[in-house]
Amino acid sequence: MSVLVVGISHNTAPVALLERLAVDADGLRKLITDVSGSEHVSEAAAIATCNRLEIYAEVERFHGSVEELSAHLVERAGGDPEIFVPHLYVRYDDAAVSHLFQVAAGLDSMAVGEGQILGQTRSALRLGQELGTVGSTLNVLFQQALRVGKRARTETGVDTVAPSLVSAALDRVGCPDLTGRRVLVVGAGAMAGLATATVTRRGATDVVIANRTAERAERLAREYGGRPAPLDDLATELGRADVVLACAGARGALITAPMVREALAGGREAVLVDLALPHDIEPEVREVPGATLVGLADLAAALHASPAGREIAEVRRIVTQEVAAFLAARRQASVTPTVVALRSMATSVVETEMERLANRLPDLDEAIRAEVVHTVRRVADKLLHEPTVRVKELANTGVVSYTEALAELFALDPGAVDAVTRPEGLE
């Protein structure tokens, strides 16, 4: 069994395609459940963010599984494979491990180093555990990925060096200082919290949080000294705002061109930043006089071109180190069934020979018999010691497979190896 990743993200697809793959909580549950029911899949989890949707699965075979997982994503996008399949990426086995570790460390994010992805990775694991689709393999893999993500942020300053989406957007529209500006944040989720924290750091003191759920808006507004507002008052709040940060990700635009045109009547100007997927703001707002609209597609190129210097290099070093350690541990664990089969074979040989000795010498003194058994077992253990050590070394190098090595040394029956149950945890 191996780990397979099939996904689509800002690295491989335009925002318009990602928008069609956006899933809500119920849709994500259904996707994971459907994937886990596939013929070749034994475990499944999914990471879903505003700019990525990735399925992680433990699979029996590569080709059939790739087709199954791809079909589930294409179905989510409306069943048009010619459009979506070219934008999908596939990571298998060792490459899947490396990819998840990079994702958790923030190296694969649009804003390199952003911290939200660590929480989203944790949520993916929790949901898989809740649905019963995550077993020992994905549990160990995701737990290790979370540890790698934490280590990257603890040992480096990547969170402060890499730009956030909000900071990049505000910089792009020339808003380094928001002192005296009225700011409207639409939404009250994780991205909205990041947006509110960012504008507060930039001097904004008049911040309004508009959200469909009043309790969440009140909680976020209270945390940053802002004012909550119901979503029904959105048009009114637009008429007062100088800067709008939309982070709700609702289905259907919350802010339309007619709303903005009315809000800016009389020559007012406003900056609108759409950080949501699906879009919260109609693209036609760009045509409204006085409105400056920045979206995810506008930010992608600038964020990828932004150098993160030594901090990013250090994170990459940490990820490379952790991937190597994880794969080495997995290879060590994979040796166990073969070693068990080898020792079982030796034990069986000893027992068979001792039965033969008992039949040939039925009057043999019990003390002498016990000493003979002890001696024969010691000989068997000594003979097995060096091959056992050597097979573990071969597993770490990856040059020679442990099955081939032991087959050459002891002519082991492959069926005996396959019959040994793998220990839980790493495969």
Describe it for me?
- With 427 residues, the protein is α/β, with parallel strands linked by helices.
- Helices cover 56% and strands 14% of the residues.
- Strands 7-6-5-8-9-10 form a six-stranded parallel beta sheet.
- Helix 13 links the parallel strand 8 and strand 9 (270-274).
- The termini are close together.
- Mean pLDDT is 85; it is low at 417-427.
Largest sheet: 6 strands, parallel
Terminus-to-terminus distance = 7 Å
Q: Tell me, what's the shape?
A: elongated
Low-confidence stretches: 417-427
- Please report the number of helical segments: 18
Overall average residue pLDDT: 85
Number of strands: 10
**Residue fraction in strands:** 5-15%
Helix-strand makeup class:
alpha/beta
User: What kind of assembly state do the chains in view correspond to?
Assistant: single chain
Q: Which percent bin holds the helix content?
A: 55-70%
Provide the spatial order of strands within the biggest beta sheet: 7-6-5-8-9-10
Q: Write down the Rg.
A: 29 Å
SSE ordering: EHHEEHHEHHHHHEHEHEHEHEEHHHHH
What is the fold's blueprint, element by element?
Layout: E1 2-9, H1 15-20, H2 25-36, E2 41-49, E3 52-59, H3 62-76, H4 81-84, E4 89-92, H5 94-105, H6 116-131, H7 136-155, H8 158-161, H9 165-172, E5 182-186, H10 190-201, E6 206-211, H11 214-224, E7 227-230, H12 234-238, E8 243-246, H13 257-263, E9 270-274, E10 291-295, H14 296-305, H15 309-360, H16 366-397, H17 402-410, H18 414-419
Parallel strand pairs: 5-6, 5-8, 6-7, 8-9, 9-10
Antiparallel strand pairs: 1-3, 1-4, 2-3
